[in-house]
């Protein structure tokens, strides 16, 4: 038993419609390839599904532009007219936008103001005032940030200077007491540790290995 004849009308079910399109698309592409080989024909097939996905086939020896030109000559239809007009319209719109932007730049620089009305001049003045306020706000922010950074660097340098002074005073005190720099305790760069040595009067100088009496030694 053969298959029943299918009525040619739109398939309402979207899933069935897509499946039918996929199957028949493959059959059309196969027939197009066969025509190209068997008949040495120039074949160009373009299809689009309901999902917007394109499928195309062009025979290997076909000059697409030449085939389209021959089609236009035979049918009298200009295939490039609508796309060309659309591109021209887009170009005109972009040129107009470009002119407006250039004019706005000149006006912000104080040029090309002759054709502006009082309302437009007020709007331009307000826009410039807002722009100036933004620039000043940004300038003050940068200045404040740089000042804070310089203050931190200065504070760090001042603390390092005080630490060096304390270390030098400590070395001078040790040398004044007869201790060499090699006998000084190890004091860190931070100068955070204080070492205090106090020699009691009751202790004999020979015990400490020193040739003089009692002294108060303070190491900072």
TrEMBL record:
Matches recorded under Pfam families: K-box, SRF-TF
One Gene Ontology MF term: DNA-binding transcription factor activity
Chief location: nucleus
The UniProt record lists the keyword Coiled coil: yes
Subcellular location: Nucleus
BP-aspect Gene Ontology terms: positive regulation of transcription by RNA polymerase II
Coiled coil (UniProt feature): 84-111
Keywords (A to Z) from UniProt: Coiled coil, DNA-binding, Nucleus, Transcription, Transcription regulation
Keyword Zinc applies: no
CDD domains from the UniProt entry: MADS_MEF2_like (cd00265)
Domain MADS-box: 1-61
K-box domain mapped to chain residues: 84-174
GO CC list: nucleus
InterPro entries in UniProt: MADS-box/MEF2_TF, MEF2-like_N, TF_Kbox, TF_MADSbox, TF_MADSbox_sf
The protein, known as: MADS-box transcription factor
């Amino acid at each position: 038993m053969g298959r029943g004849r299918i009525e040619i009308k739109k398939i309402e079910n979207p899933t069935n419609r897509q499946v039918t399109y996929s199957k028949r698309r493959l059959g059309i592409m196969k027939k197009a390839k066969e025509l190209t080989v068997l008949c040495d024909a120039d074949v160009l097939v373009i299809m689009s599904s309901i999902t917007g996905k394109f499928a195309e086939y062009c025979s290997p020896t076909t000059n697409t532009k030449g085939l389209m030109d021959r089609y236009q000559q035979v049918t009298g239809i200009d295939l490039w007219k609508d796309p060309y007009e659309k591109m021209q319209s887009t170009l005109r719109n972009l040129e107009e936008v470009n002119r407006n932007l250039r004019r706005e730049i000149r006006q912000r620089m104080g040029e090309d103001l002759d054709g502006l009305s009082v309302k437009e001049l007020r709007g331009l003045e307000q826009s410039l005032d807002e722009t100036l306020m933004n620039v000043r706000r940004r300038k003050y922010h940068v200045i404040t940030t740089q000042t804070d950074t310089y203050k931190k660097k200065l504070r760090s340098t001042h603390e390092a200077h005080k630490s060096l002074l304390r270390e030098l005073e400590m070395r001078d005190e040790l040398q004044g007491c007869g201790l060499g720099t090699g006998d000084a305790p190890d004091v860190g760069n931070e100068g955070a540790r204080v070492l205090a040595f106090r020699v009691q009067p009751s202790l004999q100088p020979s015990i400490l290995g020193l040739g003089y009496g009692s002294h108060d030694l303070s190491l900072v």
